[in-house]
From TrEMBL:
Residues 43-89 are annotated as: Disordered. This is Cytochrome C oxidase assembly protein. Residues 69-81 have a biased composition (Low complexity). The chain crosses the membrane at residues 18-37. It comes from Paracoccus broussonetiae subsp. drimophilus. It comes from the Bacteria. The lineage of its organism: Bacteria, Pseudomonadati, Pseudomonadota, Alphaproteobacteria, Rhodobacterales. Keywords: Membrane, Transmembrane, Transmembrane helix.
Length: 89
């Protein structure tokens, strides 16, 4: 049986496919390398969880005194009890 002659179109298509393979492998290698670098430097990362980060807040020049007593949110029963004067018996 005679060997089949490959058409020029198939040769060009194979060349483009190999070029695309090289580009995709380079992209995968880049993403993998960036992921490895980010994971190994994980101590410098802080996750984004939609909450303020205390490390980003400025230092308070007049911090509140410690042991200043309990604090309750306004409108709660605990806040009403704390705001009423204590009756001595």
């Amino acid at each position: 049986m005679f060997p089949q002659v490959e058409h020029e179109l198939h040769k060009r298509r194979r060349g483009r496919n190999l070029g695309l393979l090289v580009v995709l492998l380079a992209f995968v290698a880049l993403v993998f390398g960036l992921s490895i670098v980010k994971i190994t430097n994980g101590d410098q990362m802080e996750g984004f969880d939609h909450r303020p980060r205390s490390s980003m807040l400025p230092k308070d020049p007049n911090p509140p005194a410690r042991n200043s007593g309990p604090v309750a949110a306004p409108g709660t029963p605990g806040a009403a009890a704390l705001s009423q004067p204590k009756v001595e018996q």
